[in-house]
């Protein structure tokens, strides 16, 4: 009885939200040749090139030593906090300490986000029919995420095990958000982009600017290589499925995606209160660095230029939804092509 009621609720929410209503549609989807080909290419690439968290990271190499007083933890000026006068005026030892905490907090939050991806991803896969190539590729992706989580957690354990990562309210909402993988997969794939795009952006910018500590650089290089496939799949999935969503669900996707973008990027970029206390980061500095200033606004806009391009192409940024992008501070010029350098993208 309880199970039946839950299924009815799930079916109703899915129908309203425009999920592919897998629970009530027994037939196989129509052939999707170009899309299937993309999935086959992604799946084969996942078999050809993949990484193992404990074989492919030189954890114990001498140059990877994670000493607490290592100057390589000092934040680069490319980081908004690293460039701020408060950080610049700190004694060298405090710069190292704050930098070590900040970098590890971002890594830990990345690991928590990827655990959410596993949670929702397995719920999504439960509904995929036999023979659908989405199953194989997405399972490859989840396999890769398990190694990313292992890498991020091992880094956290070695470098700064005191960090907390994402804010408590967000951690408590994760089990609920995971249900979107089954109930409203289009929003779940938008949430995947809300986490993967900022992480990828920050990692690429750090590597372009010359890198950080070599252990983190090695982890970021592995992550960037595999995330290219993941981000490509999320874009392809939305291109394939968003056009057939019902109007209510398209409208909801257009309005809720900017919210997911803002919450996701803030959680990854801005240290949670617990981590700010650990770092000794004053509230006024937090407001100046990540508040309403022009640098923070520009940084936020840059993170989602690719998603704006995707949503424009899908007709999901319209006069009825555009306000949400503006209000949440993630509006701006769309990228002209995927991974366009941010200095010209927005
Ligand atoms: Fe990942
Ligand atoms: Fe990923």
From TrEMBL:
It holds the Pfam family AurF. Gene3D superfamilies: Ribonucleotide Reductase, subunit A (1.10.620.20). InterPro entries: AurF/CmlI (IPR025859), Ferritin-like_SF (IPR009078), RNR-like (IPR012348). GO terms for molecular function: oxidoreductase activity. This is Diiron oxygenase. It comes from Nocardioides luteus.
